[in-house]
Amino acid sequence: MVLIVAPAGYGKSTALRQYLDGVSDSVVRYDLHSDNGSLLGFVRGFADAISEIAPDARKTLVTAFDSARDSVTAGAELALWMHAHIKTYNGTIAIDDLHIAEHEKQVSAFIASLVDRTKGRVRWIVASRSFLDLPVGSWLAYQEMDLAIDESDLAFTTEEARSTARASRVGVRDEELESLVALTSGWPTALSFALRTSTRTLDLRNVQAVTREMVYRYLAEQVYKDLDGADRDLLATCALLPEIDIGVLEAAGYDDALGMIENLRHRVSFISPHAERARVYRMHDLFRDFVINRLEHDGAEAIASRRSSIAKVLELGGDHAGAIATTARSGSIGDLTRLLEAYGLALFEEGRGDAIVPALDALKLAGAQGNPTALALRGLIEAAHGRREEGESLLRRAVRDTTDREARDQFELRLARLIILRGGEPLDILTRLEGDCEARSDARAEATSMLPVVLARAGRHAEATEALARASVVVGIAEDVKVRARMLQRIGLAAMELGDPARAMEATQNATDLALREGLLSLASKCYAVQVTIAAVYHEDRAKTLWFSQQAHVTAQKAGDKTDMQTSTLMLLSAEAKRGNAERVVGLERLLGDIGMNDAYRQKYAATSRALRRSWEGAFAESYRLVADLWWAIPATYNQLSSGSECAIYAAADGRTSEAVAVVARVLDIVDASQNEPSVSMVARSSALLFCALAEALCGRHAAAQKIFRRVPPSLEPAIECLRATVDGGIRMLKSSKLDEYELAGGLEQLRDLGLGGLGMLVQAAVTKVLTEGAGAATLSLTRAEVAVLKNLALGKTQKEIAAETGRSVLTVQTHIQNAIEKLGCHGRQEAILTANRLGVVDLPSVRKLSTEI
Length: 854
Description:
48 helices; mainly alpha
């Protein structure tokens, strides 16, 4: 990191340009201007600047910003998104005039986080008038930067001032030059102005407050008074533009704009060419302020009139955001309303909300906030900020109040999307749009494709199937590629909800191709997520599940949508957990922490993968705690079977026999109830049964284990057969109390080859823990009295004999026996005695003999 920090007029931009001209490797340069001061504006400008090396960044800006806008770590979250686009870039990134964003702390957070993520590959150079909130101390402490280049490095020496005078062909005596250098403290711009306007030291001494700003204003006045009316008029227009674009000036009636600007540039030092763009110039900020101040002396009407004229030119040139922003400052409410109605919705969806908000504020001040388009835009902005109820209310008002049929269709379509996001069912809106022959074709098409999804989720499967058929017809004639891509994704989602995986896969694959071509990366991630579910649930194809998960993850990161990132990361986490890739699982868990979790369902889903990972480390108590209260509440029978049967093993390995037995019973009920569910495969049911059998064996309940195990016959499916063999080996070891680490390792290797290494590691860890640590005896909490009763029962004594010998009543002895049976999770006394023997609670030769005979 290199920082150039100095006040205005010290030549930071010039120094940066001259340095970059000599850099041999790849360079990206980002020059901020007035509309880059907000977080959205800054990131939008950054995305534009890197468009050659990351063309999809600009296309996904809206999605990324909407996901991060209300977060307290918005800058860091956006940096995570941006890093996905530039993580392969090696070169220099230079940012000039960063002080324009000095009031937005999240911009500093964005840069700091991005710098941290690109260490070793990207060299950063930042020029600014202040340090903002950048972590300069940390960068210095970790030797990631040297001291900043400041005004003392950039100030002119007397010799440099002499060279400037010669280059400007200004005759000045040495003693006069030295006085000018002293009075301006070597400030390059002030010194240049003084030389070019023949300002002398006596003139500067007469300035009452010798601050940089006052000196600059004085010198600017000296420049301005020597300009003719045409130059002043041109400068007035330039000062109101975000940048001096020759094309815009020519459209505004300045036929010789290029010649006039070039003439001014060579005569004075307040205009400079853009570093990257031809026919674009920049005006020095302080001189711009001076010119605007002069304009304000002419009266508010004059400056408003000039702004209105500029806005019309910007509109004709296609700069609709600039036209709206300029019109908002002009106070022309009629023009502002017209512009918002024509371009507002499109600009909002292009990531130009920062231009719309001031316009809406201007309408509010003028009492015109009831305009339907303004209401709709406010509603969308409220919803984007997480205030969805308020957003829905405003959109409903916009729909009610508008008399423009086309606008109403667009408002209703966005209202329907918002209601779906809130978990509602906008069937009335979608049905009306689909049936309205006069509605725009794209609005009708999108409504048609939303209907089957909403109907399927409402359980109205027959109606959903009919709606899906209609959507499949309409998608074939949709002209807009982006609309067709969205429709195909919804058709695929609806088909999956209706149990038609083949149709879902075909539709989402076609949608993916279109989405990637159009840069709709959030949509592509959603398509891949559907394909993950199909591959995992319907086909049990672990290789494809992993590949689709990886693609969903990559596209979600580039899209920047937080929900997509959470979903795809969880899917990839689940796939890597099943594989047993511990290092990758830990990394993904850390990434989830960076992204944040915004709903309970995803937190539950993350807990199941974490529980599996912790079980590999023998932390069964934590694994059980993580999932005990939630495994049955996770949507989808497939997930309940896997996480429930794993939970039973966690409980059993932790010595929680009664809890393990209860979980097994619940899982078996789910297995029986899912026999006819097409989304629950034979592999899913068989895996759950095998794990339930293992859990019973871990509790010492071998008869129950064998009964469940026999429900899974030998299979031609490699995954079932390998898991069956591994669990069978574990059960035999538990019954004999002899650990065969070689056999366990062999089963684990076979499962790894099939992409199920994580499940094999669970079996290995659970069996090893119970056989080597006596986990059951250590955690069952049998009382001394209960242990004594079991020992006496093992010796063949009756309840009356035990009562007489211990001085207890027969009822008390019976209570101790029943408590011991329940704690051991057994069905009767004999099974309780055998289990206690295995766990080391009872260690008598007669019991060992009985166990051997059985």
